[in-house]
Design goal:
The chain is an alpha+beta fold and about 150 residues long. It is built from three helices and eleven strands, in the order βββββββββββααα. A six-stranded antiparallel beta sheet has the order 2-1-11-10-7-8, with no helix packed on it. A five-stranded mixed beta sheet has the order 4-3-5-6-9, with no helix packed on it.
């Protein structure tokens, strides 16, 4: 049973899943695990391989047109769950249980954005204003009461 999966998100692979265990080769050659019949795709374009059972490595196999990871060209890099791989018009999302998506869930990305008080204050003022308008619309005599106080 495979632990990892490439989920197609665009191009000719959209809505297709490609499960793999140890490694997977992407390219236009019929002997590739994922065959891509598209212009600009090399016979053996890229490979994802498992390192030491707990890390995935994406390698561009001298494709000529390049392989993108999260929008950036790569030659060789480690992968995390949720990464987007692009070759030509085809895009995949890597689903890799247990691999932390380093580029997405970094400590900076998940830390608290700070105090919530400014946001709470703005929403409270807006809600009070809306309630005031609603009350005066349905009870216009209260406006005369308020004027008499001042």
């Amino acid at each position: 049973m495979s632990h990892y999966k490439l989920k197609g998100t665009s191009g000719s692979v959209i809505n297709k899943s490609f499960p793999f265990g140890g490694s997977i080769v992407l390219g236009s050659s019929p002997d590739c695990d994922v065959q891509l019949d598209e212009p600009g795709v090399s016979p053996r374009h890229a490979e994802i391989c498992l390192l030491d059972g707990n890390a995935l490595l994406l390698k561009d196999l001298d494709s000529g047109t390049g392989t993108l990871l999260n929008g950036e060209p790569v030659i060789e890099t480690l992968l995390g769950s949720g990464d987007e791989i692009r070759i030509g018009t085809c895009r995949w999302m890597l689903q890799a249980p247990g691999l932390r998506p380093e580029r997405i869930l970094t400590d900076d990305a998940v830390k608290s954005s700070g105090s919530q008080w400014p946001r709470v204050l703005v929403w409270t003022i807006l809600a009070a204003s809306a309630a005031g308008v609603a009350v005066l619309k349905w009870k216009p005599e209260w406006l005369d009461l308020i004027r008499s106080i001042y």
